[in-house]
Amino acid sequence: MKTYLVTGAAGFIGANFVKYLLHKKYKNDENVKVVVLDALTYAGNLGTIKDDIDGKRCVFVKGDIRDSQLVEQLFAEHDIDLVVNFAAESHVDRSIEDPQLFLSVNILGTQNLLDAAKKSWMTGKDEQGYPTFKAGKRYHQVSTDEVYGSLGAEGYFTERTPLCPHSPYSASKASADMIVKAYHDTYHLPTTITRCSNNYGPYHFPEKLIPLMINNILEGKPLPVYGQGLNVRDWLYVEDHCKAIDLVVREGRDGEVYNVGGHNEMTNIDIVKLTIETIRNMMATRKELRAVLRKQVKDAQGDIDISWINNDLITYVADRLGHDQRYAIDPTKIKQELGWYPETKFADGIVKTIEWNLAHQDWIKEVTSGDYQRYYEEMYGKK
Q1: Cα 351–355–360 angle (5° rounding)?
Q2: Which residues are catalytic?
Q3: Which of 14, 168, 302, 333 has a Cα at 20 to 30 A from 381?
């Protein structure tokens, strides 16, 4: 039996990772078990993984990664082999408003997980006095390209790029990465880190750029764009990211960092315009999709009008404080060492993402209304 502890798995990337493990990588494999630990804060939606939780292959525990007693109990009860830490306060705008929360969860929470892993897996000491650990164990930290800071018009982040975070969020993630490195260097704890570019795809919390644009279009609302929208990001389809994490957890070298990027660099304004164009084109050829639009005005042919889905919806707003200009990942290392590559072109991924959002409006309503909190009460409140 191989047991994963996946923290933050009711969030966007974590939920996709759990689904990838259970239904693709280890489909019907009874020798793989996933223990989910999630505090169900603003971006954690238990409804996202409710169908995956069966109490056997997938077990859910509501809790905080800073709770040392709970985390040590999970290691003891489930004999954890692999930790994949997604749990983090993760929205830059929110970190600007409440930086202390980000420091507490992202740094101290990470250290608590590392300490529990060290205690649980340690078997003794070697001749030099370094701890020795059980075979087949690993702690994996899911990080971000934002720890590197901002790039100019050219160049890419490599694993050797110095860390230079600019927001409370990225500073907290950089600090967590350094704690992970410290536990590897000081105690020889088996660890790996991945740093990814911007993810997109199913189950993306609606305050992030792409799902916000999609849902505002469906609602007939303005599309807010920071500054002139010229900030550049490298976009990675979430399942491609999950495959990379899985590869690194299983085959990556201890103590190493692996950058994971999508080779899809685009300015924010181009992302917004492409989203507008893609939705309009989809609804032009598949008129049944127009039923989800809140704006139900008929055109001259008697169909639901979509002429208003155009760039006039874009509204430029004051830029974010300390907004990094450009992120771009060089994933050469993970390609050469592990054979990973991004499979999904952005033009294909954005269509898949829009189609998912159109087909899952019930999920969107749950997470935007706060009703998703009832899943926890329904499933666990009376126990």
Answers
A1: 150
A2: 145-146, 169
A3: 14
